[in-house]
Design goal:
Blueprint lengths: L1 H14 L6 E2 L8 E2 L13 E5 L15 H14 L3 E4 L3 E2 L11 E5 L6 H14 L2 E6 L9 H7 L11 E2 L2 E2 L7 E2 L13 E4 L4 E4 L14 H17 L3 E4 L46 H20 L4 E4 L5 H5 L3 E2 L2 E2 L2 E2 L3 H4 L7 H14 L7 E3 L8 H5 L4 H10 L3 E5 L19 H4 L48 H6 L4 H12 L2 H5 L1 E6 L4 E7 L4 E8 L5 E3 L11 E7 L10 E3 L3 E3 L4 E9 L2
Parallel strand pairs: 3-4, 3-19, 4-7, 7-13, 13-14, 14-17, 18-19
Antiparallel strand pairs: 1-2, 5-6, 8-12, 9-10, 11-12, 15-16, 20-21, 21-22, 22-27, 23-26, 24-25, 24-27
The structure holds 1-deoxynojirimycin (NOJ) and magnesium ion.
Length: about 600
């Protein structure tokens, strides 16, 4: 039997090699030469790893992660199979919102390092074949920005850089100005702040220190394009764009020169200072936004031509699916890859296999033909995968994000199943939580628990820092949940993740057709098949018990024999085992990847 297994594996490996064939499949409009892949398509099937620089690796012992720390860990990321890293903002900032309040888009925050450190990171990354994606924050700057200082002083050219409005004289108190409208900040309370110097209010959709830029001023549009060009000229491979659907507010010209009040949402759980208290027809999802994104795409295309490397653009908008897919492009204009947050918002630990299938199918139904799908399992704003879905679904969710078509986005730590850490009210740093002024319920709003430092090993501060105190405390469970121990273990979240990343690079996953099936409430099967390539089958068992899965109904699956390419922590099957197509035993809470031994033809 061993000999047969070895022969079959040998055959499979030989067949899996580069083929000089043309492959056409999946929702793409490009034909790809499978024998000679070009660098141009790297982004269509990339594994993008999100780094929250503050919490990844501290190289200088100040308790804060930094650029040299990231450079030090690049070999780890390469070994894992990461194609590109997206770093949350690394620019000069007072850190009210931990870098999303930028003072200068062309300077590095000193606590993260210097421009030399950045250049070194970029060069090292290029050398080993990892691309760098920066976080681009166009909706607002920090209030220490030179542009804001000039604007509040009405310096010529800068008068309209931000969203300014006169106040309404208070009917009760003489000399007191009330905000121009009832708009509320996402971080609670009025979105308008009085500016003494200018004797006007300015808009801030996030914290007070994050004034909103005014995209109705063409100078702002040019200014931000110049920022993009600055970093593209340095050689970065693209951008993740922050809070894109907040970019425009209605034009007061259309409302008798005033900003109109937003209507009440009717949310019974919201109090008048909460963002959710109102609905937001005048401050979110305005159609003007899309053209700006398409213009950025054109700019990135120019750099793509120049550098011979596709420059990726990914946009963040928590919005309805119709509005979201419009970022992909419209008419003859191309846009961005809008983050698909459906794994974050539309499924949870109670979702069954049918629910998950429907969420996958919904996105695949809406995505325009020829565009690149993407799957997001976590980010620095959301509770961690293991805390949202439960540790026993970590492998399943990671596997789905890696086997489905398109780009996979992994937030640091999700590959080892990190959980949310505990952060006391006293230690809380996130402005979204601090703004609740509520030492009891603050945690419901806090993003600190999912931003605690990365667990490298079981040493002091989880190997993140040599400091006695880190900017946020390290989560308690680092001695059991850490990379070093998962690398040593025969089965672990990390080992599984890495194995599935390797499978993601196969032609079936990169270019193959997708088939999703819920065999029952508990069994979800994802199949990827490309002509003349070994097929890939991912199976998830969401139940506590073993299930025997008969894959015969997937007619396109050739032959009867499959081998295990990746096996999650709860699976009894080991890698390289051979299984029969009509009788695959999947243990409770197991996620498993099988590979066909025969080509799909
Ligand atoms: C979205 C970012 O992901 C979040 O961290 C930040 O607070 C807001 N945008 C404001 O920039
Ligand atoms: Mg440091």
């Amino acid at each position: 039997m061993r000999l047969i297994t070895a022969l079959l594996l040998y055959a499979a490996a030989a067949w899996a090699g580069p083929l000089d064939v043309r492959v056409e499949s999946g929702p793409r409009d490009v034909r790809v030469e499978s024998g000679a892949r070009s660098a141009a398509d790297w982004w269509q099937t990339a594994l993008v790893y999100q780094i929250y620089p503050r919490s990844f690796k501290d190289s200088d012992g100040d308790g804060i992660g930094d650029l040299n720390g990231i450079t030090e860990k690049l070999p780890y990321l390469k070994d894992t199979g990461v194609d590109a890293i997206w770093m949350s903002p690394i620019f000069l900032s007072p850190m009210y919102d931990f870098g999303y309040d930028i003072t200068d888009y062309r300077q590095i925050a000193p606590e993260y390092g210097t421009m030399d450190d950045f250049d070194n990171l970029l060069a090292t990354a290029k050398e080993i074949g990892i691309r760098i994606i920066l976080d681009f924050v166009p909706n607002h700057t920090g209030n220490e920005s030179e542009w804001f200082i000039k604007s509040k002083n009405r310096e010529p050219g800068y008068e309209n850089y931000y969203v300014w409005a006169d106040g309404i004289p208070s009917p009760d108190k003489a000399g007191v100005m009330l905000p121009p409208s009832n708009w509320i900040s996402i971080f609670r309370k009025s979105a308008w702040e009085w500016c003494e110097e200018r004797q006007q209010f300015y808009l801030h959709q996030f914290v007070v220190g994050q004034p909103d830029l005014n995209y109705r001023d063409p100078r702002v549009q040019q200014e931000m394009k110049d920022v993009l060009s600055y970093w593209l000229d340095k050689g970065v491979s693209g951008f993740r764009v922050d809070a894109i659907n907040m970019m425009y507010e209605v034009d007061p010209k259309d409302f008798d020169g005033k900003y109109p009040d937003e209507p009440l949402s009717g949310d019974p759980n919201a109090n008048p200072e909460d963002y959710e208290y109102l609905s937001h027809p005048y401050t979110r999802d305005l159609l003007e936004t899309y053209d700006v994104v398409y213009d950025w795409r054109d700019l990135l295309n120019e750099h793509t031509q120049k550098d011979g490397e596709y420059k990726i653009l990914m946009t963040e908008a928590y919005t309805d699916i119709e509005l979201m897919i419009r970022y992909y492009g419209h008419g003859n204009r191309n846009g961005s890859i809008p983050f698909n947050f459906s794994f974050l918002g539309d499924i949870n630990n109670h979702s069954n296999a049918r629910d998950i299938k429907m969420i996958i199918d919904r996105f695949m139904t809406y995505i325009p033909i020829g565009k690149t799908a993407n799957w997001v399992n976590g980010n620095h704003d959301q509770s961690r995968l293991a805390s949202r879905h439960g540790t026993n679904r970590v492998d399943a969710m990671n596997m789905l994000a890696l086997l489905l078509p398109g780009v996979t986005i992994t937030y640091q730590g999700e590959e080892i199943g990190m959980t949310d850490g505990y952060v006391s009210w006293e230690d809380t740093k996130d402005p979204q939580a601090c703004n609740t002024d509520d030492p009891i319920n603050y945690y419901k709003k806090s993003r600190d628990p999912n931003r605690t430092p990365y667990h490298w090993d079981d040493s002091n501060q989880a190997g993140f820092s040599t400091a006695n105190q880190t900017w946020l405390p390290v989560a308690d469970n680092y001695k059991t949940v850490n990379l070093a121990s998962q690398m040593k273990a025969s089965k672990s979240h990390y080992k599984f993740y890495k194995d599935v990343v390797a499978v993601k690079k196969s032609d079936a996953v990169r270019f193959g057709d997708l088939d999703t099936r819920a065999f029952s409430e508990n069994i979800l099967v994802v199949t990827r098949l490309a002509h003349l390539n070994p097929g890939i089958v991912g199976i998830v068992n969401l139940s506590d018990e073993d299930q025997v899965v008969d894959l015969s109904s997937i007619k396109m699956l050739p032959g009867h024999l499959l081998y295990v390419a990746a096996s999650g922590v709860d699976c009894s099957l080991d890698k390289w085992q051979i299984v029969l197509k009509n009788q695959v035993t999947v243990s409770g809470h197991c996620a498993i990847v099988l590979r066909t031994l025969l080509f799909n033809c």
